[in-house]
Amino acid sequence: MGDAKTPMIIVGVLNAANIILSYVLIFGAIGLPAMGIQGAAIAYTSSYALAALRQYSG
Questions:
Q1: pLDDT tens-place string over residues 8-22
Q2: Which keywords has UniProt assigned to this entry (predicted)?
Q3: Which H, E and C letters describe the chain, residue by residue?
């Protein structure tokens, strides 16, 4: 209660991770193969898992 800063930081990291992972996995940047919509799904799931781990790690 009363802590708005922590959730805002978590969402910011989540969005940044999602943007970076989406670009890399959809278009095949940095040597990875282009995966299209499957890459978008993996990026979305991975970034939300990262945020969940960050939120519950303390």
A1: 888 888 899 899 999
A2: Transport
A3: CCCCHHHHHHHHHHHHHHHHHHHHHHHCCCCCCCCCHHHHHHHHHHHHHHHHHHHHCC
Crossing angle of helices 37-56 and 5-27, in 10° steps, is 150
Instruction: Judge whether 54 and 13 are in contact, CB under 8 Å.
Output: yes
Residue numbers of the domain that contains 36: 4-56
Tokens of 31: 């040597």
Average pLDDT, stretch 32-50? 91
Tokens 């992972």 appear where?
21
Total number of domains constituting the chain: 1
CA distances from residue 31 to 6, 8, 24, 27, 52 in whole angstroms, order as listed: 34, 32, 9, 10, 28
